[in-house]
């Protein structure tokens, strides 16, 4: 503790109690030493020195070492200074390095030897020195215990603060990862919906001879897709506004519905689905997203062309997902959607591959683990 810190209410209480205890102890020691064969002048100096050191205790937080040395000097002749000096030695031990404690202890040990010569005690000097050193040693030992306990409590507080900081940082990182996941969800969900809109809008633009029934059907699909896209966007914005939350996730059971939506959009989809069993949710969502991305890309790059979707697997053997469609104008570069799918597959310890087949079709395939 340093003297630059403002004294708290607890500090005032502790300092007041120590001051009163020092005054009471000084009076007792002075009364006991009043019977020594010394001059009245030395007795008066004894009393004055003891009271001065008691008042000096109010400054022990600012100058503990200096006041403890002053106490060692005063105890060479003063009994009344003993109580305040013990408190000063204890303060040095608690607040200052151990080297300072050692020097103060040695200074007080020397003062005890000088004291036995100045006061001419009737007891043998060995008894006086031994008793005094034992008291100082007991005070220093108690102060070292208090010091170690305070250091332990401070260490625990520091650890708690660090743990709180780490937890806060981990929460922030988790939130960032959630935001990244939301970005992927926005790409997957809205990309698919908007692809359906684009296909049907393009069909209306390039088929001016379409019948009223065909125009009405396409317009109804456009309306339904736009409405669903707005609903998805509202859900995303709602999650982003909330401190904690997740976007509603599709399930593996929704995959046939996804295929049927693409068929209604005019995309011929051939589905080979043979996967029954307790598939983990995170694996099922990954399979759903892979099929969704494949259908979305087919709508963008090969509208109206037949698409083959194969989802086959069993517990213990893994799940195979494959989407194949003609892609005469498809570029070979990887888009953000395919990069995101590769990350999704890696997160569930699966594999993803894509590229052209020897027949010129585009193939998106993945193997995902399915525990037995």
Automatic annotation (TrEMBL):
Q: Tell me what this protein is called.
A: histidine kinase
Q: Which organism is it from?
A: Kribbella voronezhensis
- Domain Signal transduction histidine kinase subgroup 3 dimerisation and phosphoacceptor per the UniProt entry, residue ranges: 179-243
Class of this enzyme: transferase
Q: Which InterPro entries match?
A: HATPase_C_sf, Sensor_HK_TwoCompSys, Sig_transdc_His_kin_sub3_dim/P
Q: Tell me the Pfam families matching this sequence.
A: HisKA_3 (PF07730)
UniProt catalytic activity? ATP + protein L-histidine = ADP + protein N-phospho-L-histidine
Gene Ontology cellular component annotations, sorted alphabetically = membrane
